[in-house]
TrEMBL record:
<keyword id="KW-1133">Transmembrane helix</keyword>
<dbReference type="GO" id="GO:0009029">
    <property type="term" value="F:lipid-A 4'-kinase activity"/>
</dbReference>
<feature type="transmembrane region" description="Helical">
    <location>
        <begin position="22"/>
        <end position="44"/>
    </location>
</feature>
<keyword id="KW-0067">ATP-binding</keyword>
<keyword id="KW-0444">Lipid biosynthesis</keyword>
<keyword id="KW-0472">Membrane</keyword>
<keyword id="KW-0443">Lipid metabolism</keyword>
<comment type="similarity">
    <text>Belongs to the LpxK family.</text>
</comment>
<keyword id="KW-0547">Nucleotide-binding</keyword>
<comment type="function">
    <text>Transfers the gamma-phosphate of ATP to the 4'-position of a tetraacyldisaccharide 1-phosphate intermediate (termed DS-1-P) to form tetraacyldisaccharide 1,4'-bis-phosphate (lipid IVA).</text>
</comment>
<dbReference type="Pfam" id="PF02606">
    <property type="entry name" value="LpxK"/>
</dbReference>
<keyword id="KW-0808">Transferase</keyword>
<keyword id="KW-0812">Transmembrane</keyword>
<protein>
    <recommendedName>
        <fullName>Tetraacyldisaccharide 4'-kinase</fullName>
        <ecNumber>2.7.1.130</ecNumber>
    </recommendedName>
</protein>
<dbReference type="GO" id="GO:0005886">
    <property type="term" value="C:plasma membrane"/>
</dbReference>
<comment type="pathway">
    <text>Glycolipid biosynthesis; lipid IV(A) biosynthesis; lipid IV(A) from (3R)-3-hydroxytetradecanoyl-[acyl-carrier-protein] and UDP-N-acetyl-alpha-D-glucosamine: step 6/6.</text>
</comment>
<dbReference type="GO" id="GO:0005524">
    <property type="term" value="F:ATP binding"/>
</dbReference>
Amino acid sequence: MFKKLNIFLHSWANDYFFRPNFFQILLAFLLLPLSFIYFLIVVLKKFTARKIDFGIKIISVGNLTLGGSGKTPLCVAIAKNFEGAFIILRGYKRKSKGMQVVARNGEILLDVAASGDEAMIYATSLKNANVIVSEDRKVAIKYAKTHGAKYILLDDGFSKFDIAKFDILVRPNPEPRLKFCLPSGAYRYPFSFYKFADFIASEGQTHFRKSEILNKSEKMVLVTAIANPERLKPFFDECIARVFFPDHYDFSKDELSEILQSYGATSLLMTQKDYVKAKDFGLRVSLVTLEVTLSEEFKKVLERQIKPSLL
C-alpha cells in the first residue's frame, strides 16, 4: 500500500512540476508566498558563502531544477574525454554513511546498495574509474587530491557555493512550465541563477545524446526509476506497457518478476541507472544505452579548464 502511494505521489509531483494542469497551476500560485521565503533563503546562502580554493581544478556539473537533466551521462562523457578525473557525488539514497570510495583505478569496492545507483554507473562505465561518495564534498576533495586526482568532477555541485569551482549548469529538456522556486515550481535555485554559471550546457547544442536498445525482445515492458521518465518517450511505442517508479527506487526481484509475468513480457526495458540495481536478479533485461558526445566548443572550454592541471 505504501509503495503504491509513493508511486502515485511521484507521478502527481512529476506532472505538477513539468506538465501542470489548471488546478495544479492554481495550487502553484497559492504557494507563491512559501516560494518567496525559499527564494530568500537560497539567495542568502549564495551571497554569504566564502569560497575555498582547494588547489586543484574542480569542474561542477549541476542544474537548477529538480529531477534529471542528464548530469550523469554528461559527466561520463567529460571523464572519457579528459583522463585523470576523480568523480565525487553525494550518493543519494545509498545505504552507507560518510565518505566511501566506490571505485579506485577501475576496481569496484562497494555494491550498489552502499554506493547508490549513480555512483555505480560511473564505476561501471569508465575505464580506471575513481569514484567517491560523500555527504561532505570537502572531505572527499581533500582525499582525492592526495590520492592522485588530476582534477575533480563534482556531480550536482552547484549548491556548494563555498567551493571554488568551474560551474557547468545543464538546462533540462523539457524545461519546467513554471519558472518558480519550490514549492510553486521545480526550481531548486532561482531561474536567474543561470547568470552565475561559467558555462551552460544545452542538449542538442553543446552536447548530443545517442540511445539504442541492446538485447531487444518482442514484448518489452519499460520499467524505470528515473526522475523524468518522459526522456524515454522515443521508446514508449516499442513497449507493451510502461511502469514508472520514484527516482532512485530500490527494486526487488519479486516485484520485477511480477511485472514480467503480469504483462506476459519477454523482457524488461531498463536504463543503465535502473539496471545496476537489478543486474544480479537473473531476469531478462533489454538495456537502453546512452552515449553523450561533446561539441567542439564544449571540448575547448573544458580543455582550457582541465589541461593546465594535467601538465
